[in-house]
Amino acid sequence: MALSLHNTISRKVEPFIPFDPTGKKVGMYCCGPTVHDFAHIGNFRTFVFADLVRRYLEFRGYQVNHVMNITDVEDKIIRRVREQSTTLAQYTTKYSNAFFEDLKTLNCVAPHHIPKATDYIPEMIDLISRLMERGIAYQAPDQSIYFSIEKYQGCGCQYGQLVKLDFEEMRQGDRVSEDEYEKECVADFALWKARVPDDGEVYWPSPWGEGRPGWHIECSAMSMKLLGTSFDLHLGGEDLAFPHHEDEIAQSEGANLQEEGKPFVKYWLHGAHLLVEGKKMSKSLGNFFTLRDLTDQDYNGREIRQLMISAHYRETFNFTLDGLAGARTALNRINECATKLREAAGNTQANPATEVVEKFTTALDDNLNVSSAWAAVFDWVRDCNRKLVDNSMDPETAASELAAWEHIDTVLGVGVDQEEAPAELIELMEERTKARKAKDFSRADAIREELTSKGWTIEDTAEGPRLKRL
RNA sequence: GGCGGGGUAGCCAAGUGGUAAGGCAGGGCUCUGCAAAAGCUCUAUCGCCGGUUCGAUUCCGGCCCUCGCCUCCA
C-alpha cells in the first residue's frame, strides 16, 4: 500500500509519486492567509488540513519542504491602512502575529518557510518581465499589466485545467473592480496594478511604473523561488481553485521555466469549506467565529483541531458547538486510555504496536480517510481498555501500545501531556484517603468539593486515587 | 444556466454487490461509600422512483433536496 491523493487536475485519486527521483523529498505549498483581519475557523480548516497533510507525509517518511505564504498586500488591507492612518507593515504585522499564535493554538507544525508577499516584489517583477518578454502579458492604457489568456493559449498552453469553465459565456460582471476595465479580455487578470491615489504609500517601483502586485503573482513567484519551478503539492481552499490557482498555473507555466514535460505543480489538493451550525458563516447569522471567539468560550485548540480533522477534507463539514463538546469527550477518552497505559507501562520501553498503526496508515493512505483512521484509533482504545480491565495488560504491551499512540499522534496532533497536580493538592488528596479509611465520608466529600473548586477531580482507581484536571 | 461536492441512526460521519465502521448524545446493566473512569448492552431496511442482478445502501437511468465555485472569499 502507498499513499494516494485526489488531484484536482485529474479529478481522480492518484498514487502519490513525488518528482524527486529518490522518492523522498516533497515540496508542498499551501496558500496562506490574507492578513486583513483575524482569521476565522473556516480559514483554519484549510490550514489544519494542510498541517495534516504535512504531518502525514512526514509520518510516511517523506522529507517535506512546507511553504505557506502570508499575503500582506491586497485591496482590503490597503483600504484599512488608509482608514486607520497606519502603515502597511504595522497593520499586517498585527494580524500575521495573531495568525501564528492561532496556528500554535491548533497545534499546527510551523511551515519551513513563511514568505511574505512584500518581501518578494523583485521576484514578482522578474516573473512579470518574463511574461512581458514572451508576449503573454501586456500593459493596458491604465498602465497596469495584465495576463493575456488568449496569448497564453496561443503558446499551446491550456487555461482551465482545474475548473471547467466556459470562457465564451463569461461576461464582465459587477464583481470586476473598476480598475480592471481596461483589460483586453474579461478573463485576463492583473499581474501588476498601477498606483492609484487611494493606495497611499503602498506602492513599489517597477519597469512599468509605480504600483503593486496583482493577487495571483505572489504565489507563483514565491513558490517557484522556494520550491523550484516544478513542485509536488499545492493546497488551498476549494474556492481558490478558480481563479487563483488557475491563474497561478497560467503565470508559472506561461513563463515557461519548467523542464520539458514537467508541470508547475503535480498534485493540487483542495479542502472543502466549513458550515457553522449548518449554515454558511456570516456575521449577520451570528455563526461567524474566529479562533479566538471559540477559545474565549473555553474550547481549546486541540478540541477544535480534532473536530476539524474528524471528517474528510474534501467534504463540506458542518462545524457545531455540539460537535466541539463531542470532540472534548472523545479526546478525554483517548487521554484517559493513554494515561492508564502510561501507568501500566511504568519505565518499560517498547517498540510501537503494529496493528493499530497499520490500520491507521491504511486509512490515511486512501486519500486521507481520516474518519476511518479515527475509527482505528477508537477501536484500539476499546481493546486497550478491555485489557486494562481484565488485567491482561502487561508492562511491555502497555509500553508498546502507548508508543503506537504516540506515533499516531505525530499525525493527529491532539494528545495532551498529563498536567502534574501541585503539591498542596496532592496533600489534600492524601488527607481525603485517610478520611475515607476512617469512614469520615463527609470530610472526604468536602475535600472533593474543594478540589473541584480548584479545577481538579479525584478518581478512585484500583491503583489508588488519582488527580485529574477538570 | 454551466461545473463540482453531498443526501447513511437524535447529531457528526466511514464503508461495501450479499442485509451497515467509529465518535457524540440517550436507555439498561456491571463496578462504586460518593463520584468518575471503564466494560457489557440497546437504538438505521443507507433521499425518492424505476432498471440490471439470485441479491443493491453500494452499479445504471430519472427525479427531488442541499451546498460550493463561475474573476481577488480558505
Q: What's the arrangement of strands in the largest beta sheet?
A: 4-3-9-10
Rg (C-alpha, Å): 27 Å
Q: Helical percent range?
A: 40-55%
- The CATH superfamily label of the largest domain reads HUPs
Low-confidence stretches: 171-180
Q: State the end-to-end distance.
A: 41 Å
Count all strands and give the number: 15
| Basic shape | elongated
Oligomeric state, counting identical vs distinct chains: single chain
Secondary structure class reads: alpha/beta
Which CATH architecture of the largest domain is right?
3-Layer(aba) Sandwich
Biggest sheet record? 4 strands, parallel
Any idea of the CATH class of the largest domain? Alpha Beta
CATH topology of the largest domain: Rossmann fold
SSE pattern, N- to C-terminal: EEEHEHHHEEHEEHEHEEEHHEHHHHHHEE
Total number of distinct structural domains: 3
> How much is the average pLDDT?
91
Number of helices: 15
Strand percent estimate: 5-15%
Task: Give a short overview.
This protein is an alpha/beta fold and 470 residues long.
Written overview of the protein:
With 470 residues, the chain is of the alpha/beta class. It folds into three domains: 18-271, Rossmann fold (3-Layer(aba) Sandwich); 276-412, Up-down Bundle (Four Helix Bundle (Hemerythrin (Met), subunit A)), CATH 1.20.120; 423-469. Helix content is 44%, strand content 15%. It is elongated and about 90 Å long. Mean pLDDT is 91; it is low at 171-180. It contains 15 helices and 15 strands. It starts with a strand and ends with a strand. Helix 10 (321-345) crosses helix 12 (370-389), helix 10 packs antiparallel against helix 13 (395-412) and helix 11 packs antiparallel against helix 12 (370-389). The protein has helices at 41-59, 75-83, 88-105, 121-133, 149-154, 217-227, 241-254, 291-295, 301-308, 321-345, 354-365, 370-389, 395-412, 423-437, 441-453, and strands spanning 4-7, 12-15, 25-30, 63-68, 137-139, 145-147, 189-194, 211-213, 231-237, 265-271, 274-276, 279-280, 317-319, 456-461, 464-469. The strands form five sheets. It has a four-stranded parallel β-sheet, sandwiched between helices. A four-stranded antiparallel β-sheet has the order 5-6-7-8. A three-stranded mixed β-sheet has the order 12-11-13. It binds one RNA strand of 74 nucleotides through helix 1, helix 7, helix 10, helix 12 and helix 15.
